[in-house]
Design goal:
This protein has 129 residues and is mostly beta strands. The protein has a single domain, classed as predicted glycosyltransferase like domains (Thrombin, subunit H). The protein is 3% helix and 47% strand. It contains one helix and seven strands; from the N terminus they run E-E-E-E-E-E-E-H.
């Protein structure tokens, strides 16, 4: 197996919670499952049907991220982000992994919460949605 050095600038938070996405939230919503998220983008799995977005497509996603605090408590940040699909991986005949880049980054770095690097100022509703 060939070693490839990590090229990411930010750790990703890996978790498996629901994500809802659509090209237009006024239309039909599709459900997926989050794989990982960072401040600049996310990856999620979805069924390989007509609702699965393709590379270059603009979509809007609604998802929640756990926000950990130093005292081992946590809050849930409900987020809505629009972005562009950068990659779609075929996992099997019925499942795809979609990677999207956000047009506007999250106001925190989800994968760096545990390392003590997160800014723990309360997230305002305006900053989240």
């Amino acid at each position: 197996m060939e070693y490839t050095p990590e090229r990411r600038r930010e750790r990703r938070l890996r978790y498996h919670w629901p994500v809802w996405f659509a090209e237009d939230f006024a239309g039909m919503l599709h459900q997926g499952q989050m794989v990982d998220v960072c401040s600049g983008g996310a990856a999620f799995t979805c069924y390989a049907n007509r609702g699965c977005p393709g590379p270059g497509q603009h979509i809007t996603a609604r998802f929640s991220v756990p926000c950990h605090h130093p005292d081992d408590s946590f809050d849930i940040a409900d987020l809505i982000r629009s972005g562009s699909v950068s990659r779609v991986d075929h996992l099997n005949a019925g499942l795809r992994r979609v990677a999207m880049s956000f047009f506007e980054p999250l106001p925190f770095k989800p994968g760096e919460q545990e390392s003590g690097q997160m800014n723990y100022e309360p997230l305002t509703e305006a900053a989240i949605v």
